[in-house]
Amino acid sequence: MVSEKQVRAGLKNVIVPEVERSLIDLNLVRKITSSENKVTVTLASTALGPEVKEYITAGVKAAMNPLKIADATVEYTEAKPADLNENKYIIAVMSGKG
Fold it and tell me: Which of 7, 49, 56, 84 has the lowest tally of Cβ within 10 angstroms?
């Protein structure tokens, strides 16, 4: 059976085309379920168009091939942008002339 850590390592190589960052870096992975030769990855689909979802789904399935996963499934769930943001603090810097 494949571990969640191995799946996350594979997902690190799946890049979201519009922002050029991985699924892991964008915090889009919501849940990973694995059994024998099957993995289900649930992703947040905030502002992802249908063609981007197809591209990501193909990328996830390709990333699972080296792990010898026979059946990789990708599910999408709605999420607010605030749910994906891991920033705890925002520092604003202002400069004024006068």
Answer: 49
Report the distance separating Cα 73 and Cα 69, nearest Å: 10
Find the Cα–Cα–Cα–Cα dihedral 9, 82, 78, 28, rounded to 10°. -10
Give the Cα separation of 2 and 69 in Å (integer): 8
pTM of this prediction exceeds 0.85: no
Read off the pLDDT of residues 48-71 as tens digits, 9 standing for 90 and up.
Answer: 889 999 999 999 999 999 988 889
Provide the 10 A C-beta neighbour count for residue 24. Answer: 15
Q: DSSP code of 30? A: E
SS3 helix, strand, coil % of the chain, rounded to 5? Answer: 30, 25, 45
**DSSP-derived 3-state class of residue 82:** helix
